Amino acid sequence: MDASVQHEQATIPDGEQLSSVMQTIAEHKGCGTSGGSGKASCGSGAGENDLPPDIWEKVKNHPCYSEEAHHHYARMHVAVAPACNIQCNYCNRKYDCANESRPGVVSEKLTPEQAAKKVLAVASTIPQMTVLGIAGPGDPLANPEKTFKTFELIARTAPDIKLCLSTNGLALPDHVDTIAGFNVDHVTITINMVDPEIGAKIYPWVFWKHKRYTGVEAAKLLTDRQLQGLEMLTERGILCKVNSVMIPGVNDKHLVEVNKAVKSRGAFLHNIMPLISSPEHGTVFGLTGQRGPTAQELKALQDECEGEMNMMRHCRQCRADAVGLLGEDRSAEFTTDKIMAMEVNYDIDSRKAYQEAVESERVAKVVARQEELASLAGQSSDIKLLVAVATKGSGLINEHFGHAKEFQVYELSTAGAKFVGHRRVDLYCQGGYGDEDSLETVIRAINDCHAVFVAKIGGCPKSDLQAAGIEPVDQFAHEFIEKSAIAWFKNYLDKVNSGEIQHVVRGDAEIRQGALISAA
């Protein structure tokens, strides 16, 4: 057990106190519905009782369907589906699909048998790995035999692992019964438009029933099939997440209509992601200079759509062979050569025991946040601001500034700390020294934040951050993120109210593309 787990467990009461704490977290759980609108509140403070027990069981340890769970649980993708049946202007099939598997490429394509062995190897090594997804590198349902053979093998050998599927939706209606038959509880559909005129600007062609369609006709066929498939899945009680790529000037304003359309058809979660359009990826949008959104443009659209339904804000647009917590990639540890040489002892009982310890981490984190949140009671302020956090996971401020590959961003207000996204960055520390060029990119990536919370930071980057108007905060090292952020915010409000400082609105920030995210 690592130090972070030991640290958190040290804060957990025992005996009757633990039972009380468990009730606290039961009242908190990440995903629920609130009010009469039917809007779910995944990742908020909604209680477990806001969801039917069977739905809660599906999301409580799924890192993509619960923002809180993503701090604690891992997922993996297996690249068994190389073929695709549509062309997207943000995708070059020399690489992974941009909507599911940027940055980087699939290192190895696997057979279903190789994938099954890899899943057992990873799940035995990473006991908090709870989810197996097939997301490409093409479309899983354009490769149905390989996809469903993989699910069959995993269901037989690792029945405790949740099965997920990500698809563009073109072939979805033809496979809904098979998906349900394999107990695939989670399906992600990438839906970028419900207006074929807009769709024609995104999709050059689709291939269906041995025929290639282009232009508006292709987009009309695609959107009809996507929405039909979504309805069929939700009618069967399968949780559906909708991914949408935000393309400024093309579908950015239209995604509000997409949000309404998918909500009305029962989607559980909507994930609006930034377009990745670096020219070196060789995509149509990249080569024609189509820009991606800024950080504040993306947040504004997510905020607007959040009034209608759950928004996923912790997506990492993972590789199709990603392994580990969201935001990390441990796939290099599990190459085909390595896993085929392994003797795997898949022990469900030991995995269960480890995950029970992970749940104890969540208990301590929730209790700490609620205790600190109580200190804001009675505070009245319209101030909302963003802070960045360097973390290696487990809900802790436990990463050195110079070692951070990404920063998690929280919005602070008198309502508490709300996770709103992440910012990838290039490593500042390079072999023991600081890279000043990288520091500039880090500052641009978190330029809309008032502070950055770190476990440790050197004098030079601290001075540069302060000069840029970003406060480096290291006094909460190895403490819980939300508890610490709320404590800092309360002190910030006190300073504003006393006149010691004046609150200013920060500028925009850059969404960094192609930054290093693989594990060191």
UniProtKB/TrEMBL annotation:
<dbReference type="InterPro" id="IPR005980">
    <property type="entry name" value="Nase_CF_NifB"/>
</dbReference>
<protein>
    <recommendedName>
        <fullName>FeMo cofactor biosynthesis protein NifB</fullName>
    </recommendedName>
</protein>
<keyword id="KW-0949">S-adenosyl-L-methionine</keyword>
<dbReference type="Pfam" id="PF04055">
    <property type="entry name" value="Radical_SAM"/>
</dbReference>
<feature type="domain" description="Radical SAM core">
    <location>
        <begin position="70"/>
        <end position="319"/>
    </location>
</feature>
<dbReference type="Pfam" id="PF02579">
    <property type="entry name" value="Nitro_FeMo-Co"/>
</dbReference>
<dbReference type="GO" id="GO:0046872">
    <property type="term" value="F:metal ion binding"/>
</dbReference>
<dbReference type="InterPro" id="IPR058240">
    <property type="entry name" value="rSAM_sf"/>
</dbReference>
<dbReference type="InterPro" id="IPR013785">
    <property type="entry name" value="Aldolase_TIM"/>
</dbReference>
<dbReference type="GO" id="GO:0016829">
    <property type="term" value="F:lyase activity"/>
</dbReference>
<dbReference type="GO" id="GO:0051539">
    <property type="term" value="F:4 iron, 4 sulfur cluster binding"/>
</dbReference>
<keyword id="KW-0456">Lyase</keyword>
<dbReference type="InterPro" id="IPR003731">
    <property type="entry name" value="Di-Nase_FeMo-co_biosynth"/>
</dbReference>
<comment type="pathway">
    <text>Cofactor biosynthesis; Fe-Mo cofactor biosynthesis.</text>
</comment>
<dbReference type="InterPro" id="IPR007197">
    <property type="entry name" value="rSAM"/>
</dbReference>
<comment type="function">
    <text>Involved in the biosynthesis of the iron-molybdenum cofactor (FeMo-co or M-cluster) found in the dinitrogenase enzyme of the nitrogenase complex in nitrogen-fixing microorganisms. NifB catalyzes the crucial step of radical SAM-dependent carbide insertion that occurs concomitant with the insertion of a 9th sulfur and the rearrangement/coupling of two [4Fe-4S] clusters into a [8Fe-9S-C] cluster, the precursor to the M-cluster.</text>
</comment>
<comment type="similarity">
    <text>Belongs to the radical SAM superfamily. NifB family.</text>
</comment>
<dbReference type="InterPro" id="IPR036105">
    <property type="entry name" value="DiNase_FeMo-co_biosyn_sf"/>
</dbReference>
<keyword id="KW-0411">Iron-sulfur</keyword>
<dbReference type="InterPro" id="IPR034165">
    <property type="entry name" value="NifB_C"/>
</dbReference>
<keyword id="KW-0408">Iron</keyword>
<keyword id="KW-0535">Nitrogen fixation</keyword>
<keyword id="KW-0004">4Fe-4S</keyword>
<dbReference type="InterPro" id="IPR000385">
    <property type="entry name" value="MoaA_NifB_PqqE_Fe-S-bd_CS"/>
</dbReference>
<keyword id="KW-0479">Metal-binding</keyword>
